[in-house]
Amino acid sequence: MCKKIGFIGCGNMGSAMVGGMIKSGNIDKNNVIIFDRSTEKTSSLKERYGINVGKSSVDIASASDIIILSVKPNIYKDVIEEIKGIIDENKIIVTIAAGQKITDVEKMFKKPVKIIRTMPNTPALVGEGMSALCKNQLATEQDLEEIKEIFECFGEAEVIKEDLIDAFIAVSGSSPAYVFMFIEALADGAVLEGMPRDKAYKMACQAVLGSAKMVMESNEHPAKLRDNVCSPGGTTIEAVAELESKGFKSAVISAMRKCAHKSRYMK
Ligand SMILES: NC(=O)C1=CN([C@@H]2O[C@H](COP(=O)(O)OP(=O)(O)OC[C@H]3O[C@@H](n4cnc5c(N)ncnc54)[C@H](O)[C@@H]3O)[C@@H](O)[C@H]2O)C=CC1
Ligand SMILES: O=C(O)[C@@H]1CCC=N1
């Protein structure tokens, strides 16, 4: 891969993607250029990864074959207004914003542009991201495959239909936040029972990691794996019964409904 990849915006998500790409060893640091209006962010990323820093969004759009718009959704319009004169049919625009449909972005450019809409997540930083991708009409299957390969540098990536992207945000783009809350809750519970906090985080994280790996590798239904932990009259079923009575699963499902709804209708 020797195409130039440019990032406009390098906050939480942009920097996680940059970090995941460079740490993978599959993308040469000389092929990555970033711009963020916060010079503090760009300086620190340049120092950490040795990547190039542009002076403006226009700089990034001129220097890159693939332009990743990693600013907040409400900034898309302004950034696109700045760069649209430079974007031609040889460049690929990659969006990562919640709520910005392909048609919305096409309207902002007011001309035919190749667009790949994606939804990454922050575990990209540690090479364990999960991303979804879809394309507009002008982008080719080859363009889509090329961007997918870039996203696979920092985790798994799947092509999906755009109408599933709101569901995808709920289960993947946003879900690290709820998983972190669960880890925090597990650790708090252990501290309550007398465990030192640093140990509590380690135990909680390993339990979550190991459980996820088991679901992925065992081909068993999660409910079966749960049943295997619940000895009759034992400790686990006490916890499971309490979680059921507090509406644990329905709280998660209803949170995801809110998340997908927001993504579907946000401006
Ligand atoms: N944070 C996450 O876990 C995920 C975020 N996203 C999407 O990623 C995008 C960015 O979100 P975050 O990284 O969380 O936000 P953030 O606020 O951490 O980063 C946005 C960055 O854009 C910069 N910025 C603002 N205006 C700019 C401009 N005109 N030109 C250049 N840089 C500018 C800011 O200085 C900031 O560093 C959003 O569209 C969001 O929907 C998608 C998936 C996951
Ligand atoms: O909260 C948000 O809007 C972004 C999109 C997915 C994760 N963070």
From TrEMBL:
<comment type="pathway">
    <text>Amino-acid biosynthesis; L-proline biosynthesis; L-proline from L-glutamate 5-semialdehyde: step 1/1.</text>
</comment>
<dbReference type="InterPro" id="IPR036291">
    <property type="entry name" value="NAD(P)-bd_dom_sf"/>
</dbReference>
<dbReference type="InterPro" id="IPR028939">
    <property type="entry name" value="P5C_Rdtase_cat_N"/>
</dbReference>
<dbReference type="InterPro" id="IPR008927">
    <property type="entry name" value="6-PGluconate_DH-like_C_sf"/>
</dbReference>
<dbReference type="InterPro" id="IPR000304">
    <property type="entry name" value="Pyrroline-COOH_reductase"/>
</dbReference>
<feature type="binding site">
    <location>
        <begin position="8"/>
        <end position="13"/>
    </location>
    <ligand>
        <name>NADP(+)</name>
    </ligand>
</feature>
<protein>
    <recommendedName>
        <fullName>Pyrroline-5-carboxylate reductase</fullName>
        <ecNumber>1.5.1.2</ecNumber>
    </recommendedName>
</protein>
<dbReference type="GO" id="GO:0004735">
    <property type="term" value="F:pyrroline-5-carboxylate reductase activity"/>
</dbReference>
<keyword id="KW-0641">Proline biosynthesis</keyword>
<feature type="domain" description="Pyrroline-5-carboxylate reductase catalytic N-terminal">
    <location>
        <begin position="4"/>
        <end position="99"/>
    </location>
</feature>
<keyword id="KW-0560">Oxidoreductase</keyword>
<keyword id="KW-0521">NADP</keyword>
<keyword id="KW-0963">Cytoplasm</keyword>
<comment type="function">
    <text>Catalyzes the reduction of 1-pyrroline-5-carboxylate (PCA) to L-proline.</text>
</comment>
<keyword id="KW-0028">Amino-acid biosynthesis</keyword>
<comment type="similarity">
    <text>Belongs to the pyrroline-5-carboxylate reductase family.</text>
</comment>
<dbReference type="InterPro" id="IPR053790">
    <property type="entry name" value="P5CR-like_CS"/>
</dbReference>
<dbReference type="GO" id="GO:0055129">
    <property type="term" value="P:L-proline biosynthetic process"/>
</dbReference>
<dbReference type="InterPro" id="IPR029036">
    <property type="entry name" value="P5CR_dimer"/>
</dbReference>
<dbReference type="GO" id="GO:0005737">
    <property type="term" value="C:cytoplasm"/>
</dbReference>
<dbReference type="Pfam" id="PF03807">
    <property type="entry name" value="F420_oxidored"/>
</dbReference>
<feature type="domain" description="Pyrroline-5-carboxylate reductase dimerisation">
    <location>
        <begin position="162"/>
        <end position="265"/>
    </location>
</feature>
<dbReference type="Pfam" id="PF14748">
    <property type="entry name" value="P5CR_dimer"/>
</dbReference>
